[in-house]
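Our consortium's second objective concerns turning raw sequence data into structural hypotheses that experimental partners can test. To show how far this objective has progressed, the report includes one record in full. It was chosen at random from the queue rather than selected for favorable results. The single chain below, 110 residues long, was entered without modification.
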Amino acid sequence: MNESDSYQKALEQCVLIKQMNLLSLELDVPFLKKAVSDMLENHRHRDSMMVLNPNPLTHNDQQGLNYAKITQLQNMLNLAETSQQIIELEKKLALSKLNASKFNDFFGNS
């Protein structure tokens, strides 16, 4: 892959990343955190009840799938929280730059 192809691929990926960030901001993080907590509790309960399952191989596969889905949701929530944090830090930085500019203008600094 040459530099031009790499740059084009990076631009395409940026569009997808931006879309994912925007979607993540729509998540109801407090509600979903509670749901994840409940899901993890149910997951642990099913593990403790495994002795009653007539087919432990199916149980283990199902538990593995369930845990992967829970982990995926946790990662989505982390993305949502981090995206919100980035927005807040960008606002804070912009305000700081504006205040620094006003301060410099006041004292005649450039």
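The partners drew two points from this record. Helices lie at 3-24, 29-48, 56-106. The longest helix spans residues 56-106. Both points have been shared with the crystallography group to help prioritize constructs.
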